[in-house]
C-alpha cells in the first residue's frame, strides 16, 4: 500500500461558461521515503495537484488516501501530522 494515493482526482474552478477543469482523473501513488517529481508546463495543474495531495484543498471529485485512509476521514490530530513547507524554490 502506498503512503499517499490520489485516485481519479478532478478539480474544476468556476461555473458555467467560466468553468475550467484543472485536473482530470489524476492518479498518483508514492511510498514513504521515495523521491517523486511533479513536472509540467506552466498552468498545467502542478500546484493544484500538490495542494490537494497535501490536504489543503479538497478536489471536486476523487479520493486522497494517506496510509489507506481517506484524508477527510482522518482525525484533526492525524491531519495535523501532515506537514507543509512554503518557501522560495531552491537550487
From TrEMBL:
Gene3D superfamilies: P-loop containing nucleotide triphosphate hydrolases. It comes from the Bacteria. Residues 23-78 form the ABC transporter domain. Keywords: ATP-binding, Nucleotide-binding, Transport. One of its GO terms (molecular function) is ATP binding. This is ATP-binding cassette domain-containing protein. It comes from Paenibacillus farraposensis.
